[in-house]
Design goal:
292 residues, mainly alpha, two-stranded antiparallel ribbon, two-stranded antiparallel sheet, 6 strands, flat
Length: 292
């Protein structure tokens, strides 16, 4: 965008200079190979789209920097809570995105996300909470954060909103691991079993990874409590149920309904589309249950 912006600005300046030196009535004749006003309007429109995308990226970066304790006048110097310099220096000025930052012109609400099997795509993050006994989807959410870590408490609140009571137990994979999420669940009084590492490891590998867990070194009490819970036989037996509770539902959505990508643009429309897909999935499941 930075390169295109500069190139378009130069092209627009050249076209404006040419317009001043050219008889526009002749340029608009049918036998004219090009229309100067159309060329100018096209480049100005593209320049505006690029500048708008830059503003969105900068606004997003400002929010990220603020969350890390930075301020517009920090002179790229890290400071403690009292405002005193801590040493070192930030690589970028406040609110300046990385040179690799990207933005979609057609769907600004979407975000670049990694996909299983490699590669990155403009995407949304769709969530579903599934009931153990019926395999019905009881709660959904749609966001544009690539990480699942902030969704743990959100999904618990969604379940409570729909079912009018807290879930009896939440099972989630390692992508949902976060000290803040565990703390919020404890405050809500919602028990959970959340993996703290990759699945498929041997017991010895899991023990070794726990010993070197940075969360343990930093003394995160909620993560430490989850670790002890997951180490127990009851925790391991409970967590194993996750694979046959929620994984089949996503498999059915992708392979039976054939839903692997959204058709709409904009987070509001995508939320509606995901809600429709989950409703269809529930109707199919309810019909199956009624036949049993």
């Amino acid at each position: 965008m930075l390169e295109a912006e500069k190139a378009l600005e130069n092209q627009i300046a050249d076209l404006l200079a040419k317009a001043q030196a050219t008889d526009l009535s002749e340029a608009d004749q049918e036998d004219s190979p090009t229309s100067l006003p159309c060329e100018l309007a096209g480049r100005q429109e593209r320049l505006k789209r690029i500048q708008d995308a830059k503003k969105r990226l900068e606004a997003r970066q400002q929010e990220i920097d603020k969350s890390k304790g930075r301020t517009p006048n920090d002179e790229r110097k890290p400071r403690d809570k009292d405002g005193r310099p801590k040493g070192g220096k930030y690589k970028r000025d406040f609110g300046v995105p990385e040179s690799s930052a990207q933005e979609s012109f057609t769907d600004p609400d979407s975000r670049i996300m990694p996909h299983r099997g490699g590669g990155f795509e403009q995407s949304y993050n769709c969530q579903a909470g599934v009931d153990r006994d019926s395999h019905l989807i009881v709660a959904i959410s749609t966001g544009n954060s690539p990480s699942d870590a902030g969704q743990l408490a959100t999904m618990a609140l969604c379940v409570k909103d729909v079912c009018k009571e807290n879930p009896q137990l939440i099972l989630a994979d390692a992508g949902y691991r976060s000290e803040e999420g565990f703390r919020m669940l404890e405050e809500m009084g919602v028990p959970a079993l959340v993996a703290l590492g990759r699945e498929g490891k041997s017991r010895e590998d899991e023990t070794n990874s726990v010993k070197s867990d940075p969360g343990k070194e930093k003394g995160h009490p909620c993560t430490d409590a989850m670790r002890e819970r997951m180490r127990s036989q009851q925790g391991q037996d409970g967590y194993r149920q996750r694979k046959w509770i929620v994984e089949p539902v996503f498999g059915w959505i992708k392979n039976i309904l054939g839903f692997r990508q959204v058709s709409m643009r904009g987070i509001g429309k995508v939320r509606a589309e995901w809600a429709l897909v989950c409703t269809v999935m529930n109707l199919r499941r309810m019909h199956r249950l009624s036949m049993a």
